[in-house]
Amino acid sequence: PLSLGISGLYADDSYSRSEIGLQSARTSRISGDLGYAFNEKNSAYLHAGYETIDARQRGSEMYSSPDWKALREDEFTTAGVGFRSESIATNFDLELDYTYGKSNGATDVVATFSPGGKFPDLETELNRFKADLTYRASERLDVVFGWWWEKFDSKDWSLAGVQPATMPQVLAFGADPYNYDVNVFSVSARYYFGKRHGVESAEEAE
After folding, report:
1. Has this prediction a pTM greater than 0.85?
2. If both were cysteines, with which of 13, 118, 183, 184 could 148 make a disulfide (CB 3.0 to 4.6 Å apart)?
3. Do residues 105 and 70 touch, judged by C-beta distance below 8 A?
4. What are 117-127's pLDDT values in tens digits?
């Protein structure tokens, strides 16, 4: 009744022939998932992952020779848990899923002709919950009632407070960092043209 999966990745890329642009990027990632079947009709699962990306970049402000470099460090964390039941009530199936995600990006610039320095971190956070209740109206027809809630928050210094005329001689779009809270309700139907596995007709059940 127990299933386990683990995966990992490591990549180290080098661009030694590039005078300007991306110089190197190192990626590390590990993820895992765990599932448990309580019985033939009820199960739960859990998954999580973590990833880091370290990148090095060189650029030029005025000439072809590089006069500044940037160090970028990104971190991503995800996790989720869910539950499925085909026997929550007579002719009713239930599926629940919660997902969490968080990221952080740090950028440090070292310049020859200007002070440079560390930019404010870029941050995002996601919370999402989804629920589906399926009613088996007949052997071939399902009616699905769904609810999806999602909340997303972000901090982006390059967008926050930058309106169309904030900077001289620069016309911006005035976009703000993404921040939202959404509820979605849905009703849908599924019809099976052929007999589906595991569902008996009334005559077969007798």
Report:
1. no
2. 184
3. no
4. 788 999 999 99
